[in-house]
């Protein structure tokens, strides 16, 4: 779910909304907080998989020439 903040500064990069949610999901997951593992280790275990897939699709749509007509995926 996207998170919106009133006093958040605008990030002009592509896929910034998904990037922020993906980062927050990883850093706030029990795998990182309680078990003390690195976020990369938690990704390999399959945590936050839906956001990882969405972020990948958004980045891939930047390279797709059809996205000129359809627009970038993501928020």
TrEMBL record:
Homology family: Belongs to the PET191 family.
Isomerase as UniProt keyword: no
Name of the molecule in the record: Cytochrome c oxidase assembly factor 5
Record-linked InterPro entries: Cyt_c_oxidase_assmbl_Pet191 (IPR018793)
A Pfam match: Pet191_N
Gene: COA5
Keyword annotations of the record: Disulfide bond
Described purpose of this protein according to its UniProt entry: Involved in an early step of the mitochondrial complex IV assembly process.
Entry GO terms, CC: mitochondrion
